[in-house]
Amino acid sequence: MAGGWSTAVTCRSEGHPRVLIADDEVLLRAGLARLLERAGMEVVAEAGDADEVLQAVVEQRPDVAICDLRIRRMAHADGLRLAIAIRYEHPDTAVTVLTPSWRSYPLEPIGDDAEGVGYLPKQRVADAASFVESVRRVVAGGSASVAA
Question: Which one of 13, 57, 94, 140 has the largest count of C-beta atoms within 10 Å of its C-beta?
Answer without folding.
Answer: 94
